[in-house]
Amino acid sequence: MNFILGRNPRIIKYNAINTRRYIPKPYKAVFLLCADFELAWAWRFAKALPDQKQDAIQLARQARENIPLILELCDEYDIPITWATVGHLFLERCNKNGNLAHAQMERLSYHENQYWKFEQGDWFDNDPCSDWQTSPEWYAPDLIKMISSSKTKHEIACHTFSHIDCRDGVCPSQILAGEIRECQNLAQKYDIRLESFVHPGHTIGNLDTLKELGFTSFRTDYRNILGYPKKHSNGLWEFQSTAELYYRKEWSIDYHIRRYRNILDRAIKHNRVAYFWFHPTFDKHFITSVMQPVFSYIFKLHRNNEIAVLLTRDYVDYLNVCRSKS
Fold first, then answer.
1. Are residues 241 and 280 in contact, defined by beta-carbon separation less than 8 angstroms?
2. Which end of the chain has a smaller Cβ tally under 10 Å, C or N?
């Protein structure tokens, strides 16, 4: 009902705002797409999974099957994705130092949030400390190379090194800084510069630390929004999520497609930014039955100069240029 009434996603109203500060000519709206690229790292403490480690491995295997198919779809419809990547996935292998994996990394204390609960053992207990051929659920240099070499220009963004809770009350700044520096060092070996940040589990915090370490933006998911990015006083841009690409059993395939298309139409009608995101762990049927027609529709809208399809970092560049001219 909220969707039918136009309340979800919520269309933010602004007073006397110049839309060209946010919408490049000749387009009427902006579309951004982000994937949380985590493999098994996201799920090992998940409250919703009965067998956390094995379920995490199974979800990682599903993501591995899906990502090449998603990349093919991106190439077919010229849709770029910002891949929010857990830093451990850059590794080809790792080993224990004494009894600990990644002993140089500072650990968070035991904690709980909306999605996971860490209450015993070591944060890296599930790390197999092997290599990507043996344990491909925990490493992904092959997929990172595949993404980077795709015909479509994608962005590799940062999702911390080990998928930690980043909230200020949970994560001391030095721990997040250590995780990020590890990611930056590994990304540099691939000639990748990390500019966009996505907090794991929407655990927003340590924003000044992000700015100090060279990031330009982060994503929030407090509610579904059609609006404009927010510029924080420290210079970071905040992108508010509009919708998650996700299969819901209570919805028909036709309704999935119609809903996502309708959101894009609303973005165009109101000259807003539509920020979609997803975990690549859904059943592969979702890719062909829902993502393919939605991507096709986005391609049509872009070709007709209705909607600009951008990477997060490229859109930040546009926003900063417009701000400097105003």
1. no
2. N
